[in-house]
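Here is one chain, start to finish.
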Amino acid sequence: MRIGVDLGGTKIEVIALDDVGAILFRQRVATPKGGYSGTLQAIANLVHAAEQLLHQVGTVGVACPGAISRSTGLLKNSNSTVLIGRPLDQDLSRMLGRPIRLENDANCFALSEAIDGAAAGGKVVFGVILGTGVGGGVAVEGRPLVGRNGITGEWGHSPLPWNRDDERPGAPCYCGKDGCIETFLCGDGLAREYFSRCGRSLTARNIALAAAGGDACANECLTVYKDRLARSLASVVNLLDPDVIVLGGGLSNISSLYDGLTGQVGRYAFSDGIDTPIVPAMHGDSSGVRGAAWLWENGAS
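Its structure:
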């Protein structure tokens, strides 16, 4: 039995999978506010609840925002600031009394979709998170590609490619730089664009609904958003040339984004055209927790 935990800013989810990926147990709880020790205890409680109900002890993989620093052994680059500077993997291993595997949530997302999701059978898969933030992960032959510094796939903190005069310098990003891809493609980035062009405040979800209802200004904003997404993905294609690109996160549910997107990426990519499938995640918001469970597949780590 494989147990996966998805540690998010608002919720913690646990899932238990059998050897073929069928769900044996699933539960979500709210993430404790402000307390690192409370977060550890909540994870341990979920794991123990799964094992007690199923009368089995499982391997444990954890998906979380950020990555373990190779130099310090502490978590870095997390938008859940309570986790930063903590030896999260070591503390959880000690609390659960067994080795665990911990990986960036976007890498777990890519792994899940590569093993038995929308990119199953793809040798190289790039997984994209378009939501509150913009993340990315890479899976190669069913294993996460982590990289020497633990930051493979972090496309959201590169500059927007082929940026234009009205896109410079771009909004400040929490990473300390201006004009990161994340600032344009996250939910707040789309909302900021709508306010700038249309003079009203709407959430990304409501902008999509307005566009579907015929709001011309909302459609204009989505056209701009899609062009920025295409430019950003073209830079990934130029570097990685994945077999499949899978989109996840709340903004991936905007169905109009997929219409002609591969061709639009191809106009920016260094090729005479591309045929890379760009598809929505099969497992939706459960991809991260499933990928965490699959961290123990074939020695993936």
